[in-house]
Amino acid sequence: MPRCDATHTPPREGAVRIPSGCAISGIMDKSGARHDGTDILKSIALMHDRSNGLGGGFAAYGIYPEYKELYAFHIMYENQEARKATEAYLDAHFMCEKQERIPTEPVRSIVNPPDIWRYFLGPHPVKLSMSGQDEAEYTMLHVFHINAVIPGAFVASSGKNMGAFKGVGYPEDIGSFYRIADYQAWLWTAHGRFPTNTPGWWGGAHPFTLLNWSVVHNGEISSYDTNRRYVEQYDYECTLQTDTEVITYLFDLLARRHGFSQEMAAHIMTAPAWDKIDAMEPSRAAFETALRNVYSSALINGPMSVLLGSDEGLLALNDRLKLRALMVGEKGSMVYLASEQAAIEVVCPDIENVRSIDGGVPFVVQLDEVAARKAQESAENTFCDLCRPAQLVGVVPQASKKAESMRATGGQRADAKWAEGGQNHA
Amino acid sequence: MKRIYAIEAWCVDCKRCEVACKTFHSKSRNTVKALKAEFPPPQNRIRVEGGRQLSIAVNCRHCAAPKCVEGCVSGAMTKDPVTGVVSTNPEKCVGCRTCVSMCPFGCVRIEETFPKAVAFKCDLCGDVLGQPGEPSCVTACPNNALIYIESEG
Amino acid sequence: MLDYLLPRYKVLREDDLCVKCGVCERSCANDVHTLDEEMDAFLIDHKKCVNCQRCVVMCPTGALAITNWPQVGNGSNNWTLAAMQEIAKQSQTGGVLLTSMGNPKPFPIYWDHLLLNASQVTNPSIDPLREPMETRVFLGARPEALKVNEREHLVKTPMPPQIKLDVPVMFSAMSFGSISLNAQKSLAMAAQELGTYFNTGEGGLHKDLERFGAHAVVQVASGRFGVDTHYLNAGAMIEIKIGQGAKPGIGGHLPGEKINAEVSRTRMIPEGTDAISPAPHHDIYSIEDLRQLIFSLKEACRYQKPVAVKIAAVHNVAAIASGMVRAGADVVVLDGFRGGTGAAPTRIRDNVGIPIELALAAVDRRLREESIRSQASLVVAGTIRSSADIVKAVALGADAVYCASGPLIALGCHQCQDCASGKCNWGIATQRPELTKRLNPEIGAQRVINLVKAWNHEVQEMMGGMGINAIDSLKGNRLMLRGVGLNEKELDILGVKHAGE
């Protein structure tokens, strides 16, 4: 519809796709020892110029050891109604052990922050068993529902023993706002965002998370819509239209549902070029060909540098052509990654083995205990939850019902799909 | 030496080679001017024999031991010892037709032209090949029925 | 009976340029030009001219051009000259109007309403001269997920048969019989060189072309001409042809005069008999019958070759395509209503079917909605005119395209729409030896190779501009497309935004 400029407000992220550049940083202790957020704050603050004050955030793993069996939901609310609706929804589908406001501190540059709460909860056992889904799938779909349906509410993170702290502002200000120096984590990632345009909003800041995954990313992938339409076949809803979101879903699909190691998932996303494959010995070439073939739509193209956090550790990945900077350095059990070398050296001046991550070669850092466990496990992937997304099954096509009854049951999304109908060709 | 070969299977009887040959051996090297205005009219050396069903370009093979040279009474017909090209010198030619009768391939013709009747035959476009580096008939052929390739002898 | 039909074309001869060499006369199988020695001038029979432009191209002095017959109509938008001419033809002959090539009517061409994206500032474009730019495509079913041993780098899931294309374009089905052996051989040689495939059409595989079997798609159509186990195993892929974009819902008819000894042997029918392909396959009256044929063919090739099913894009194409995938088709081929043909009833060609762009968008969406998109590849045909059309088709969701008219034009075809006469002056749609020899496959193959290589370079340039270096990432990437001059419904069906959004 034509609209007068005066009333035209720029669309929020999700309604449109907004390209952005970024700074990313990650610090991990492979031994699993936990460190406070001071270093990550210093590291991302150094790269101040790589963000423009429209988004910053942190992901931290190992911060809630006392509730490590429960999902920790960080939820942002625009208003009281959103909280009421969300909590009612959570009550219906989850058992909540504890809920509290996330402690924050006023920061001058951060105006009008949302109301931010955290919940430690587990799936409602009866509902879970009735759903036929596993715990992760069940939780994921309800997080999708809250983010897609309840106005003014946004689940910022939903993993176990981890959390995301993010918002509109420079990352160092966001860090102070959330008092992240007070948390103890064995893995920290951070993100400073430089979107080209957008009225910033808190949910759109990064890291992007899903269950235990957290992703920070610098780049703008050109394969976005191919990747989006691929994951949407498997019931992921790309509501934010960001690279980070779709990369996270790809990891979830490949690593959790198809059972690949994170490294293999990353390898699939940055598959070797055909001329490299053609030069491999035949059985390896057949292996790589099959992977590229089956996961052709999971290939990521265009500039990308990604840090993927999970309960296993950290994975860093650059696009095949190495179109974005990403540096790594080590010191004892510590591993540091950042968009700029300076952001590593500022927190660890005597860093060793500093180098740039190769394009298309996943760089994996696992917790020592995870690495030891994985070495014992089978190298074959096991599918989980390959079942199709809820099929459109009904007892009677909605369109055949009278208009009144339509109204009575209206408003459910499935109805629209029913009405579309399929023609029988039996 | 490089010679022109005609391939019957691909000859489509269009005779573009003849036109190109005439043009190349004209004064103006412009087809319209050469064929409509020049006197004496330029003569083609290559000729297409046959009809629509079956046709082939007939052209000098620049034989290793050319019969036409052997038979020439005036010393007009010679084979260049360096290039191997067999050519005729119209100044010396007396139009006696010995070469015509000697050639086993029917590739020499006597044409009544100004100021006297002389022999005409392919000279592989003389000192200068046509563009692009091929005899003009080969370039003009639409179907690779004339090819210009290296061969023995 | 006096023929009321007017000539369609007028041959213009520039006397100042004409050198009366007679190349035009000898080039025309329709006997349009005759050099009259007494008059020392050309007599021209304009009525016989089909505008194939052979004489225009062959004339050494550029003295010829073809124009429309200058007769004006009465100015009516209803009774145009063309409409009246068709009536004149039918009242003369009492026959169905026959024509060739694709729908020429001014229906919207959606390719021309779609624009491509390019990278600026926020991400870099990629230079195909500096970076690998991959256009390799595989066609065939693929499992939804792969089981592997990561340490040993072994695939555990059995991989279904697939074919590999180095360029995202194949040559669509044109049978030996409808086109000459030289034309088919040109395409076969080009396919081999380019790492892609030609399609036998339903005319069988001539023994001379069996050596190109690794680059052949062998077609099984309703006439089943030339089909036996040897044939089915001679190619790289089997294609069941249900319908053709140019003539959905009707079969084919190759007149007996084109069934010479070679065509007869290849089609396995007697010499001189008409080769009639029924409108439907008489063993496929429903979707479950299709499944049986698909699996019969898979059995016949011991599950070693993918089986494609080709349909014309018709109104209910999305549901039909979904059914085809569920019936076991490894590749779904959609042929749009602008697709070409050697012969079709004019009314069918011009009025039946839907545009390929809309069919493609609808099918790709439906297969994704049903989560069966990865079970089959999607190939589209029906006026792919340039590399830009290929890029747009892939971005809409196709794995690859089929293209026939383009390569035919490379071979010399000028789309005169007179294939059915059997007098193709370019040696393509004819079996007359004096005409077929006009197409030397060495030249034909080279021209087609040049064309496809040029297209592929352009595809790579466009992909590079978008910041994409593998065609995998272009497939279904509709965000790389914007519509111009399309209404909301069209944009919705195409699944693209309008330019400026």
Please describe what this structure looks like.
The complex is a heterotrimer of chains A (426), B (153) and C (501). Chain A is α+β, with helices and mostly antiparallel strands. Chain A has one domain: Aminohydrolase, N-terminal nucleophile (Ntn) domain (Glutamine Phosphoribosylpyrophosphate, subunit 1, domain 1). Helix content of chain A is 31%, strand content 25%. Chain A contains 14 helices and 18 strands. A seven-stranded antiparallel beta sheet of chain A has the order 8-3-10-1-16-15-17. A five-stranded antiparallel beta sheet of chain A has the order 11-12-13-14-18. Chain A has a four-stranded antiparallel beta sheet with strand order 5-6-4-7. In chain A, strand 13 (304-310) and strand 14 (313-318) form a beta hairpin. The longest helix of chain A is centred in the middle third of the chain and has 15 residues, at 135-149. The model of chain A is unreliable at 388-392 and 403-426 (pLDDT under 50). Chain B has 153 residues and is of the alpha+beta class. Chain B has two domains: 1-59 and 124-153, 2-Layer Sandwich (Alpha-Beta Plaits); 63-121, Alpha-Beta Plaits (2-Layer Sandwich), CATH 3.30.70.20. Chain B has five helices and eight strands. In chain B, a hairpin with a 4-residue loop joins strand 2 (47-50) and strand 3. The longest helix of chain B is centred in the N-terminal third of the chain and has 9 residues, at 16-24. Chain B is globular and about 40 Å long. The relative contact order of chain B is 0.25. Chain C folds into two domains: 9-95, Alpha-Beta Plaits, CATH 3.30.70.20; 137-470, TIM Barrel (Alpha-Beta Barrel). The mean pLDDT of chain C is 95. By secondary structure, chain C is of the alpha/beta class. The interface between A and C is large, with 61 and 55 residues.
